[in-house]
Amino acid sequence: MPKQFCSIGNRTVTEYTVENAGNAQRIDEIYLVVNSDFLGLAETIQSKYPKISKIVESGLTKNDSIRNSILALENDIEKAIMIPAVRPFVTPQVFDDYVGLLDVHRVVAFCTPVLGYAARVADKRISEILDRRFIRIYKSPVGYDTKVLTDLVETAPRKDFLSMESDLELVLKHLPDTDIFLYESEAFNYKITYEGDITLASRLLLKDF
Question: Which of 59, 85, 161, 202 could pair with 4 as two cysteines, CB 3.0-4.6 Å apart?
Fold first, then answer.
């Protein structure tokens, strides 16, 4: 079972993320992007959360799934926030902040300070200590003026969506003059990546500590 559909309490991880987005006052609708094997489960989730207006079939990679969601956008949508379902701790306030910031900026990215030391490495050896004043850890969600997204789909070949790991990498390569605003936050934004992460997330979400 994919991590986003693992159960914590009586809900899936996806439902916690959807609930947070749905509780944001400035979020009007939610697209759920899922693998075709889980469309039935996605429809069950949709029935519980009225802001889910569309279910979109995922692509071969994360960025390919983003591409599919861009192609599915209705023409009247001016702003979009991309977030993986495995980030159930992003609060409604973050979503509302993004919507406001997108009035001014074309892209908004969640970043946290580097608290330790950052090093450049090669062949398992440290070659340089980097100045952490100029480095941030970038995470989802990323907010977009949808014109950026449509321009990206028109400009970037699909092979780049398939090969590049980060959506911002695509933007920087194909739309290099785009304003990307740094949403710097120390808010807890934990991603469920490994099997053991489910245990920690369960304790935090269910307040079992």
Answer: 85
